[in-house]
């Protein structure tokens, strides 16, 4: 209570000046405070009644649970929305029209020695399902290095091709007819002057081929071909060949696959006598892939009926190859293989058209061949390859001049063993589409058993080619072919050797493009103008100059 009284006193004193300021002074005399006595009486006491306090807790009220049944009502709503048919305008880029396409092409030329050249193509228009073409080719010269017209020649061929691209298979076919005319001009004009009709050699050939291959499956590959060829000469020598071949590729997995190749060759050769020949070959193999190594392992079987004294009818050969890619641009392979190589009258006259009318025919038995190769690409457009082959043959054929008529060649077989070694290396360079060049060199070594020398087989070969495109206006081409180490048998002897000079044939050409359709060209062959001999007594033409042009439409 004392605290309250003191508080009241303090507040009263504090409020007094404020109340005094609120009273206006009448004049300055009124503002003076006189000698007055103020008496403050502090006897009053303010007493408050005591407060009642209740310490009892309020007990909680009991809550009775409410039980009510709740009913749920699910209603199905069907929203019927109007179909949305927006109009969308697709912005497309106008595609360029396809490049102009010419399906007809002709190239022709004339040169010294009354030489002529013609090459023509006609192909069908662009079609996704098929492609057809017709090709005509002629090359010849009315005169040559010996007795003018007596050493002329001509080759003529017309061929039609067709391909059908189906959903699951591709069908290819071709039919052709060919006529080649040569003369036996390998004589000395100072000693003899034969009539042209007595020395002519004419071959007529025709044939057809049909092939089918599946085109879609990566797991299974099947292919089959059937072909027929007829070859005949004006001396009534004929040969008919029928060939059927098939191949199967089946991938069991990424690491394992099966390969099967087979073919059957049936031949009928007629000169003074008639000879039927057959050759069947089968080559099953397995493929194993363990990256970066791939392995092919199997064998080859050949059955033939040639009646050579050293040959049986059935032959078995090994077949194995290991290849690996130590880098993305390098491939290396080594292997061993043997097989029977078919030899026909057609294959012999293709290599040497001056053979005799009556020629014995024996298939060459490649008993074993060890080989290896490395090839790859180098930065800057360079490529390379190199390899070797060491093979052993039976019934390898060689060409020798006939002892009675040296203008004609006999086919001589080594029925013993002929070991042939081939070592080769090559390099190429490709710089966009302007410049391209390639060079390859081969060395051949021979070790014969029953034949003293590998007659008319070269011991080395060099081939080079290059072309340069100057501003898409002038195309330059150049090439070189070199054959050396050729040995011929001296006529009238059994082992007399005549070493032929190397065959060096250099060529150079230039073609000027007037437009995408028309051009003119100038071509030089045998720039060194040498009468080299690929076959003994058959010199080549000296410098040959050809001028011509081409047109596409």
Give a nutshell description of this structure.
The protein has 553 residues and is mainly beta. It has helices at 2-21, 196-199, 345-351, and strands spanning 104-111, 115-123, 130-141, 153-165, 169-183, 200-214, 220-233, 238-251, 256-270, 274-290, 293-304, 314-327, 330-341, 364-378, 382-401, 409-431, 435-447, 460-470, 474-484, 487-489, 497-499, 503-513, 518-525, 533-535, 538-539, 544-552.
Could you characterize what this model shows?
- The chain is mainly beta.
- 6% of the residues lie in helices and 55% in strands.
- It is built from 3 helices and 26 strands.
- The strands form 3 sheets. The chain has a 22-stranded antiparallel barrel. Strands 20-21 form a two-stranded antiparallel ribbon. It has a two-stranded antiparallel sheet with strand order 24-25.
- Strand 1 (104-111) and strand 2 form a beta hairpin.
- The longest helix has 20 residues, at 2-21.
- It is elongated.
Task: Indicate the structural class.
Answer: mainly beta
Strand content: over 45%
Q: Report the major sheet.
A: 22 strands, antiparallel, barrel
Q: Total helix count?
A: 3
- Low-pLDDT segments, ≥5 res: 1-33
What Rg is obtained from the alpha carbons, in whole angstroms?
Answer: 52 Å
Helix content: under 10%
Listing every helix as H and every strand as E from the N terminus to the C terminus, the arrangement reads: HEEEEEHEEEEEEEEHEEEEEEEEEEEEE
For the secondary structure, the number of strands is 26
Shape: elongated
Q: Average the pLDDT over all residues and give the rounded result.
A: 86
The end-to-end span amounts to: 133 Å
